[in-house]
Specification:
By secondary structure, the chain is α/β, with parallel strands linked by helices. The protein has one domain: 2-Layer Sandwich (Nucleotidyltransferase, domain 5), CATH 3.30.420.10. The chain is 38% helix and 20% strand. The strands form 2 sheets. Strands 5-4-3-6-7 form a 5-stranded mixed β-sheet, sandwiched between helices. The longest helix is centred in the C-terminal third of the chain and has 24 residues. It is globular. The relative contact order is 0.20.
Amino acid sequence: MAKNSGNLFEFEDTDYSRYCGIDEAGRGPIAGALVVAGVVLENEIEGLKDSKKLTQKRREELSEKIKKCSKYYIYEVGAKKIDKIGLSKAIKEALEAIKIEFKAYNIIFDGNSKFGVDGIETMIKADDKIEAVKAASILAKVYRDNQMIEYAKQYPEYGFEKHKGYGTKAHLEAVAKYGYCEIHRKSFKINLSFAENKLF
C-alpha cells in the first residue's frame, strides 16, 4: 500500500506489480536523444541499483532480466525535437506517453518535478529506493548507451562510444574541429573558448 504524504510517497509493501517506475537517461548531454523508461516489475530481480552505480556489463545483464520480468515502455526524444521544444517539454512529452501506457498503475518518477504532468508522483533518489525506478534507470541507460555506440559508427570523429554525448573535453574539442553533426543539440550552450577554431 502507498500513502501520499505531501510530496513523498511512502511504500509499505513489496507488491511491485502495482507500481510503474520511471527514470531517464540523457538529460545533460550535448548530443543524442533523451531516453525515458517506464517499468512495471512482474517478478523480483536481485541486484537492482541506480544505473550509475553499476558497471556496463552488469547493467547489460540486468537489462535483459528486466525485459523478461516486466512490462516496460521506452520513449525517446531526439536532438532535433529537443532543440525545437526544449528539454522540459521533451521530458513532459515522454512522461505523458508513459502515463498513458501505464494508466492503470501508480506511477513514480525519479526527481522532484512532475513537469506539469498530473497523475504521477515524484521522489528524490527514487532510483536508490524503489525497485521499479531502479529498473527504469537501467533500461534507459543501457538503451541510450547502445544507441550512442551505434552513432559512433556513423560519426567516428566525435568519440560517442566513450562519452555518450556528454560535454567532455575530448568531445568539445571534436565539436570545435568538425562542427556539429546531426545528433548534436544545437540549442545547448557549450563553451569552446579553449579552442582556436570556434563555432561561435
